[in-house]
Amino acid sequence: MNLDTQICDRARLARDPRFDGLFFIGVLSTGIYCRPICPARSPKAENIVYFPSAAAAAEAGFRPCLRCRPEAAPGSPAWNGTSATVSRAVLLIRQGELQEQNMEDLASKLGVTGRHLRRLFQIHIGASPKTLATTQKILFAKKLLSETDLSVTHIAFASGFGSIRRFNAAFSKMYGRTPSSVRMRNNESKITGDELFRCTLTLSYRPPFDWQRMLEFFELRAIPGVEWVANGAYHRTIRINETTGMISVAPSPKGNALLLTVALSDSRDLMSIVERVRRMFDLDANMAAIHEVLTADAVLEKSVRKHPGLRLPGIWDPFEAAVRAVLGQQVSVKGARTLIGRIVAKTAPRFESPDFRNLTHFFPTAHELNTRDLGAIGMPESRVRSLQALAEEVDRENLFFVVKESLSDFIEKLTRIPGIGDWTAQYIAMRAMGEPDAFPAGDLGIVKAMRQADKRLTVKEIRQRAETWRPWRAYATMYLWHG
């Protein structure tokens, strides 16, 4: 991946937070790499080399800066300047894909060979998939060392390492010192009397970020018993692998960051949970690049100026997104929320918390939904059949929420399921997969927003108009919905 040296120079000298995490600065005289916002005195230009990722800097032999903490930087947008295959691989690796599977398994899931995937990573990321995964684990461990009071043993396993020995060796190789020597006790994390692991982590983002609009979006669609929005914060129950618990997300008082608080039955899935939350709130988006494209269109320009930093809201679990999309067909948001609340109450396991009595259930898995009677919940029989067909496909592992060859191929596969049309499939791609170019062109809100004087555009005309919004049509959808 080629970086524009002139742009990087300007961003570095200005310490512009909009570029934080989009590139890293290697200092040849010290062997350290930094974020563009590092407060240290700027090195001489001849001693600087730029890297597209922390993994690329690590592979080149540079150590992370202990002052600006590269582990605290916003993630690079998975699709920013990379091929579609690489962007999806990065997302899967961040979610811990290589912890349980090998490179060939990852490549197969993406529809390519391992050799081809490694070649693409060198071109676009500047490092191998393995280096990216290892760098992510170590940087996450450093984050836990800096922001929590977890023991080194807890941190090793929470970061995805299989043994303390491997963790210490990998950490010492990257930082040149042991984990315990860089520890900073700024926070409190512990196993409480109720046997839940609790901690609070800071998740950075690049400004601007319209938190209020994001929160309103989640509140309007909050599933009764599973999600709850109150006092400027979002709360929900979660399940991942064997780990259960709840999360809370709120703005950080220090700015340009959210605070994630977790209460979990096990800390080993913490890194995957953090990555899912980053995706839910779209914290790695490069809004400057998105705005540059969208403001060129007269229809979108006013909305972008009115609501800068409007992100793409995700969903905790892809299957949940698919269920929401099916239930949202031809009904209001309020109506869909009522239906999904009935399904949860009828099919999902209960959750109990003395702190959040509004949270009473987990969201059902595909197996739980597939093996329950969905009658008498107020849905048309055809909708029930569609939901059961979807749950069966996911339960039998015939359907994976991973885009392989292209977005259009993924949409085509989804629409083979009875009752799932283009709108539903595009909505799933937007919110479950975080696909930035997904576009439900036939959505009524989009059709109304695109109306020109007394003329109502056809879906074909809307798609033609939207060609200039690529690859950010999903973000255009959000701006059209907000007006």
Automatic annotation (TrEMBL):
Domain HTH araC/xylS-type: 87-185
Pfam families: Ada_Zn_binding, AlkA_N, HTH_18
One Gene Ontology term of the molecular function aspect: DNA-7-methylguanine glycosylase activity
Reaction equation(s) it catalyzes: Hydrolysis of alkylated DNA, releasing 3-methyladenine, 3-methylguanine, 7-methylguanine and 7-methyladenine
Alphabetized UniProt keyword annotations: Activator, DNA damage, DNA repair, DNA-binding, Glycosidase, Hydrolase, Metal-binding, Methyltransferase, Transcription, Transcription regulation, Transferase, Zinc
Source species, domain of life: Bacteria
Assigned GO CC terms: cytoplasm; protein-DNA complex
EC number(s) per entry: 3.2.2.21
Cofactors required: Zn(2+)
GO annotation (BP), single: base-excision repair, AP site formation
Enzyme class: hydrolase
Protein name, as recorded: DNA-3-methyladenine glycosylase II
Organism: Desulfomonile tiedjei (strain ATCC 49306 / DSM 6799 / DCB-1)
